[in-house]
Every structure is written in structure tokens, then in C-alpha cells.
Amino acid sequence: MTAGPAVVAPEIVAPQVRNLASLADSLSGWLAGRLPGARDIRVSNLSYPRGAGMSHETILFDADWREGAFGRSRAMVVRIRPMRNTVYLDDLFDAQFRLMQLMSESVVVRVARPLWFEADASILGAPFFVMEKVSGRVAVSYPPYSKQGWLVEASPADRRIMWEDAVGQLAAIQRVPVSEARFLELPGGADGFDQEVDRWRRFVNWVDPDGRQMTLRGTFDRLMAVGPANRPEGIVWGDSRLGNMMIGANFKVAAVMDWEQPSLGGALHDLGWWLQIDHAQTAGQGIVPLAGMGSRDETIALWSELSGKSAADIAWYEAFACFKMECLAVRMVAIRDMPANVALSVPGSRTAVLLDRL
């Protein structure tokens, strides 16, 4: 009998890994102050998600306790603010929690219900927040979900259900009024688009303080020289991709996750990022897209229909998304040991190719 291909289990990619037994004790004591009337609190089944969660330390756990004569339990997630080797320049940890609250209250966007925010860093070594755990599966990026895993094993019909609902949730974010998220305003301009551009101008200076990344900087200048005419307002999720969605047993989105770099930059930033990530997970690695998953044109058309916003000039936003990814790659190389066999392209070069096609 011929052996089938080896299946590689996703790895823990958290920025740091701590002693989970010690964490359980700390959370048990902390929950006593958040659950009035609770006694015999026990935190168990702590684990890091695999193949996801590179920028923030995220730990899943179960909490059990008694209230009077009754036993209670709840599955939860704790997300801890990174204190060193941060991936992003702007600290938006508080805003991340507030945005999740806003999305939860909106009803149209499905998120894990945020429960409590803790600003006291002495408890876990950094501020943190706790949210409800949502059951489901994640299409992990490492290894690519289009190459192996549960999504490959799903039927084309089920994949279609998931794709349509995922794009629907991406579009639903644009139905939440910008006026309700003014706490996301950043320096750098009067409107959200200018603020988003300035955020990445500052990011380049942060990762390249000596001005050595000439291709990266030159590409940024080229992007600014051909900036888009279409700049619809909108809340930016930040890391908009299928891998940041929890998928339920019915193949619909159970929760939109990872809101660590939001802004008011405009609706098309998320769509451009989504399209670039989808390309990177498939054709960008020589992988044929799975049957049932929508094409680039289908995704643009469905998103435009459901959001009610024009996707004109989307090619520029895709190029800008690629530029942001290259900036992040420079940062990741700086803070993490990269395998010797990993060959990185010159920062800014991939974006330059996209600009050449505009």
C-alpha cells in the first residue's frame, strides 16, 4: 500500500509562550472579582491556537464555578497585550476591545462577545481582555488551507456556502457607521484615508530608521503618486482574511476575529488586503484555488453588492496591501529568528510589480 502525503500539524506561532498552570491560577483569582457570587472557580484546558495568533498572545480556556447550588461553566479566551517585540507600531489594544464591543452591539457583524477588559498589568504582566470562546474551525495559514486540512476535505458546495458568508461578513463591517468608531482616529490627517497612509509612512521609518530600504521607500512614493480617486469611508478591520474567521459546523462564519490594527482608513483597504491574502494562499504559492471558492472578480462583485460601495480603483488598494505585508515582513525578520532556507524578496519589490500593472 502506498503511503499518503504527510500531514503537518499547525505550530504554535504566538509571540511568546508562558507557563499555563501558573496562568490558570492567576485567571482563577482574577475571575473571582468578575463573577459575583461565584465560588470554587477552576480554570482548565488552557491552550494556544495553532497556526494562528502571531501578533498577540491568545490562550483558550474553560472556567467552571458554583453559584449557590448550581454549577456553571463557560469557554473563554484571554488576549494579552504584547509588551516586547511588537509587530505593529501603533498600540491599539484598548481600541481593539472597544471595536469588538461595537461590532458585537451592531448585530450585523459576528464576533466573540467581549466580556471584560483589565488594564492592571500586574496580574498577567500586561493588560488583557477576556471574551467568550466561539466553537468552530479556522482555515489556518500555516500550512496553507488550500493545500491541506479540513477545507480541502470539504465539498465544493460547503466551500461555496463558507465563501459567500465570509465575504458577506467582510461587507457587513461597512454597515457599521464610522461615526460610532471615532475612537479609532489616528494622527496624520483630517480624514481616515490620510491617517491610514500616514500610519504606514511612520511604520517604514520605524522598521528602517537608517533609510537603507530604498526599494521599500521608493515603492511607497510611487503608491502615493498614483493614489486612488475612489476613497469610500469605512472602518478597517485590519487583518481581513479567511484565516481570521471562525467557521461553524454549518460552514458559516461564527466569529470575525483579530481586530488588532483597526482604523478609519476606508472600506477598500480591507477588500484589497483580503484579495492579496487569498492570492498568497493559492496562486501565489502555485496552489490551484479550491472548487467552490469565489474568484477575485466574484469576490469584488459580491462585496460591492452587499456593502453598497464601489470597488473602483481596487487594484491600488491591493498594491497598498502588498506594500503593508512587505513592511510587516521586514518587522517579522527583525524580531524573529528566520530559518536559514527562507529566502525573502527585496522589500517593496512585489508591490512594485503590482504598480507596474496599474
Q: Would you kindly provide a written description of the structure presented here, covering whatever features stand out?
A:
- The strands form two sheets. Strands 1-2-3-5-4 form a five-stranded antiparallel sheet, with helices on both faces. A three-stranded antiparallel sheet has the order 6-7-8, with helices on one face.
- The termini are far apart.
- The chain has helices at residues 20-32, 93-106, 150-153, 156-172, 192-207, 214-225, 267-281, 296-307, 314-335, 349-357; strands at residues 39-47, 57-67, 70-80, 114-118, 128-132, 137-138, 245-247, 253-256.
- It is globular, with a radius of gyration of 21 Å.
- It is α+β, with helices and mostly antiparallel strands and 358 residues long.
- It folds into two domains: 20-132, 2-Layer Sandwich (Phosphorylase Kinase, domain 1), CATH 3.30.200; 137-357, Alpha-Beta Complex (Aminoglycoside 3'-phosphotransferase, Chain: A, domain 2).
- α6 packs parallel to α10 and α9 (314-335) runs antiparallel to α10.
- The chain is built from ten helices and eight strands.
